[in-house]
Structure formats: C-alpha cells, structure tokens
Amino acid sequence: MNTLTKFGLALFTATALAACGDSGKSADSKPTTVQTAEGEVTLSGKYAEIINKFPVPDPKLAEPITISDKKSPTGLEDLKKFMEYISGAEAQKIAQMSSKLQQTALKGDEAAALAAVKELTPALDKYLQDAEKLNIQDAEVKAVLDRMLQTSKTANEMIILSSKNASALKIDMKDKEAVQFMKAYQDKTHNMETVLRQANQEVQKAAQ
Fold it and tell me: For a 10 Å CB count at each end of the chain, is N or C smaller?
C-alpha cells in the first residue's frame, strides 16, 4: 500500500464523491431539544428542521483501516484505476463545483446556493456510479476507496445542508432562539469535523 503515498491523498476531501442531494422529504419541524456545550436548548420551526436534518457521522469512519503486507494479483491494476478515479477530469470537475458551492454559501446567497446544489448533485451521483464500475478486487485498495467515499459523503451532506439554509445561518444576535440554534449547529459541526478529521488521518495512515 506504500504506492498510495504517491497518489496525493489530499485530493480526496475535494474529489472523492458521495451520493448527496435531497430525498424530497421534509424533516420534522416540530420543537426539538438539543444538547449543547452549555446545556439543553429547545428549537422550533426552521431551526428544528435544520438541526433534525444535520447528518450524524458514523463513528466507524474514524476506525483504523486494516492493511497487510500481502500482495494481491490485481493490486497494481487496482491502484492504477484508483489513481485515475481520484485525480481524473471528473474528480477535478467535482472539486471545482464543490468549491463554487461553498463560496456561494459563505456569501449567504441562498438562491444561488440552491442553484449550485442542483448543478452539483447529478454530477456527484454520476461520480458515485463511476466508482461502482471500477470493480476493484484488491481488498485494501477497496477499503481505502470505500472509506474515502463514505467520508466525503458525510462531508458533502453537511456542505449541502448549510448551502440550502444559508440565510438561516445568518442570525440576529438579539434573537435568543437564533443564538441557541447557532450554538447547537456549531456543536454539531464541531463533532462532525472531529470525526472527518480522524477519518482523513486513518486514510493517510493506510497509505504509509
């Protein structure tokens, strides 16, 4: 697996895909109680809906990836396919679209962000289908690819949720519920980033 160190694994957070997008179902907007660093808070309406939609990271993403020294008959070919997948034209296109989406969301322009989401989602779906077509047989290469895809899926779900609710994330500090919502959102974001950071580290370790 040492060959993977040559593959620029830093690309994966921007290029490895996940099936994102909206299922079309609305999350429950009834009042919801959320535990924050400062205690429990109760949110309602749009704030409750956003918090209820926030993706929960799978703890398994942070678990070590088992790597052995055994050689696989398909290893080199699978590594080649893996490299082409994470650094090819489609991967670069996804990275550019994702960057555009994040920049748009940061401006708080929800309409433009929604348009960017609609542009990105089908491209992400196609990229995932391409991953399934790789037919990688080497267990270790597949394990790394799967972890990258799962991690990216979770990250993209968070990015898309934030983009779709860009205006709600620009709060009035005089609004008590809005401030409580933002604290809850920041706590969930911090927890998410902790898991994703560890997942990234495990991918890097697997490549050493």
Answer: C
Which residues, in sequence order, are CB contacts of 110 under 8 Å at separation 6+? 163, 164, 165, 166, 167
Buried b (16+ CB within 10 A) or exposed e, 144-153: bbebbbbbbb
Looking at residue 10, what is its pLDDT? 36
Structure confidence by residue, pLDDT tens digits, 159-176? 888 888 888 888 888 888
**Strands 32-36 and 39-43, sheet pairing:** antiparallel
Q: Which residue has the tokens 């309406």?
A: 45
Q: How many CB atoms lie within 10 A of CB 122?
A: 10
Nearby residues of 67 by Cβ (< 8 Å), 6 or more positions away: 1, 140, 143, 206
Structure tokens at 43: 């949110």
SS3 39: strand
